[in-house]
Amino acid sequence: MRETQQLRLMQLASSSLPVGSFTWSQGLEWAVEIGWVTDTETFAQWQIQQMEQNFFSVDLPLLARLYHACELDDISTARRWTAYLLACRETRELREEERSRGAAFARLVVDWEPDCVQEWRAIFADSQLCGLAWLGVRWKIPLISLALSFGYSWIESAVMAGVKLVPFGQQAAQRLILLLCDRYAQGLDQALRRTGHAAQMDMVSRFDHPDPVSYTHLTLELDLTILKRKCKFKHFSHPKPIFRQIIVGSGIFIPLHTGWHTQIRMPSDSGAFRPCPVNTG
């Protein structure tokens, strides 16, 4: 890369880029509050899990697809992969986060490159990833360099959020950045090379491990509905079968149509879920 391209790449990685990265901490506040993240060690484990289940499985493979679509000026394909990315954000909270970053990044793209056509701008507003890929192509930044910049920006934002929330000091923060950068570099090339049906199945399989923190924020209204029904129906009965997954607190409640049998899947110490059946009927 030439000097101008390198400087623009640094700008994209800058923590001062106004896209709201520090506003969204991917559930870290709740993880700290309920005791999943208590120190630098558990924080590192938390971020590596986010990296492996999100960046390596979804974001980086889709960044590669979007980059190639932008190279071909293929708006239809870019729109399809952006919709796929939003579908991989399994809760409304995560989709709103994605769109918020996308809208902020779209404003930057329009300011930097005013000749960007409206069809592309509309896609950028749904996801920062597409706008980033388009800028990479426009500025002739190689995909691998763009992915490194994207990953570093995420790592730095996450660690700076941890400084305030966990908390830990600046020296510990720099050690964490080194650790997370090393892990990111190890998985980067393989993640970008994920193509074809197997890669798409990897993206789908992440729903076997949904984001527990996001799910605890998801259904407060459903929780209130359950409480109302509890007062109305003595035995939690309901005239029609119910197959919706309802989350209360930090457990996932699954009401079945044969009364209200509840299965609570509580997060274990490792962050995975462990089943704990309870009969409330």
Task: Walk me through what this model shows.
The chain is mostly helical and 281 residues long. The chain has twelve helices and four strands. The strands form two sheets. A two-stranded antiparallel sheet has the order 1-2. Strand 1 and strand 2 form a beta hairpin. Helix 1 packs parallel to helix 8 and helix 5 runs parallel beside helix 7. The longest helix has 32 residues. The radius of gyration is 21 Å and the shape is globular.
- What is the N-to-C succession of helices and strands? HHHHHHHHHHHHEEEE
Sheet-strand content, in percent, reads 5-15%
Biggest sheet descriptor: 2 strands, antiparallel
Low-pLDDT residue spans: 201-210, 213-281
Protein structure class: mainly alpha
> What general outline do the C-alpha atoms trace?
globular
- Mean pLDDT, as a whole number? 75
Q: What keyword list fits this structure?
A:
globular; two-stranded antiparallel sheet; about 5% strand; about 280 residues; disordered C terminus; mainly alpha; single chain; 12 helices; two-stranded antiparallel ribbon
